[in-house]
Structure formats: C-alpha cells, structure tokens
Amino acid sequence: MRSLLFVPGDRPERFAKAQAAGADGIIIDLEDSVTPVTRPQARLNAAAFLRDGNRNRLVWVRINPVQTGDALVDLAAIAATRPDGLVLPKARTGADLQRLDHWLEALETQHGHAAGSIKVIALITETAQAVLSGSSFIAPPARVIGYTWGAEDLAADVGASANRTAEGEFEYTFRLARAHCLLVAAAAGIGAYDTTDTEFKDTAAVERRAQAARRDGFVGKLAIHPAQLDPIHKAFAPTADEIAWARKVIELMSGAAGAVALDGRMIDRPHVQQAERILAALERR
Description:
This protein is α/β, with parallel strands linked by helices. The protein has two domains: 3-235, Alpha-Beta Barrel (TIM Barrel), CATH 3.20.20.60; 240-284, no CATH class. Helix content is 44%, strand content 15%. The strands form two sheets. The protein has an eight-stranded parallel beta barrel, surrounded by four helices. Helix 8 packs parallel to helix 9 and helix 10 (240-253) crosses helix 11 (269-284). The N and C termini lie close together (10 Å).
C-alpha cells in the first residue's frame, strides 16, 4: 500500500468519499479523531460500513490502545465484520502486539474468520518507552505487516513544545523516532509507513517529504486529506531513470559471479535488492 487515508469514525458520510478519493486503503479512526462521547456511535458506524458498504478499497480501523478499556470494546464491535486490518496506536513494547494477536485469534475463531486474516500495522514511537524498546518489536506476530510512527503523542510524552522547526521539518528527536521505525521494521522484515503531514494545501511539500520517505526505505505514507494522495502516489512511483537502472542491474547481475560495472560504478548483490524493490513498486502502480 502506497497510501492509507484516515477518516473519522464519527463521520460516516465521509467513508465512501474517502474510498472514492483513490487511496490504496482507508483507516476508519476510533481513536484520536473522535471524542469519548462520539466513540460508541463511531464503532457502530464502522461496523455498518464494514458489513454493508461497498468495500472497493482495503478498509482498516484504528482501534484504541490495548492498555485502555476501549480497545476490547472496539474489537467486539467490529470483529464480526472482518476489517482488512487494524492500526494499533501507542504500542509500548512487543508485548502489546502479542496481546492484540491473542485477542484477534479468539475473535477470528468465534466469527469463523481464517486465522490471521485481520492484519495489523502498529505505531511504535508514540512514547519514549516505545522508542527505547525497539528490540521488543523485532519478532512480531505474523499478522503484523507494518510499522508506522507518530510525532504528536511523542512530543507530549517528552514535554516538547513543538516537534517541527520553523521551516516545517521535524526536530532531531522526532527524526530519530522516524529512523527508529524504519530500522525496526527492516529488522522485523515488514513494511515501514511514514507518518502523516499536517499540510494538505501545500501538496509540493507533501510530495517532497513522500519522495524522501521512499528514498529512505519507507513503502508508503499515511494521509489525513484526499489532496495528499496524488502527491504521495507520484512520490512512490519509480522514475523512468530508476526503472531503466533497475532493469540493467537485474540483467547484468543475472549471470554474474560477483561485482560488475554499470555506468562507471561497481554494483553487487545489495544493488539487486534495490532493483527488485524498484520493480516491485512499479507493479503496484
């Protein structure tokens, strides 16, 4: 998935519009974008859409953290309708992923779903504890297919008055959290998804940051507004030069016993992995 678009769970009139916007998947949010007062209705809205809606895109649900009383209530409301996946916020250590996995195993069995059919993407940087517990996330349950990160809750946790510079770029602590997410995801063998941008009118900034995310190794990016989708998709599409380079690498290395020269530079097995990733991204377009 190149893009996942958040939509508040208490705004059901936006669900179909979010799907029509063209994201690879939508995330119906039961956490930060809804209030405790509207959360019960948001659960009903999500379940109704999952049950009756025209699901022409992947439909995910962001539940509440496992350490809250809301998490199991969220799951009880939506599990029967089998969302494509769940976004787990504020994971503190890998134990939170194991706990969610056990709950989902029981619910999948109860409702006749295939074991592991409900996938999970977890936010693993929203507290200092989570950032410093990276090794605990390296061996997640098989249903966990990605990690992502967030800066707002981390800022609150560490007492930062802001998480971006005056130019709109993340301060060092939050760049560190971003790198932490990328490295832990790589160690776990799953995808890393870059966090949302608050801008939606400055699409050039969204595209520039998404390009940097793909260059760094992220496989996709979260979005909060439909206007962000086109720049994200453009950024995660390989360029013509990258495609040509990747094909040359695959061709040259297919029969090579070691490093070979390409355009004045030496290439070897790690470059084959990079080339394969570029061509895989091409197939996703």
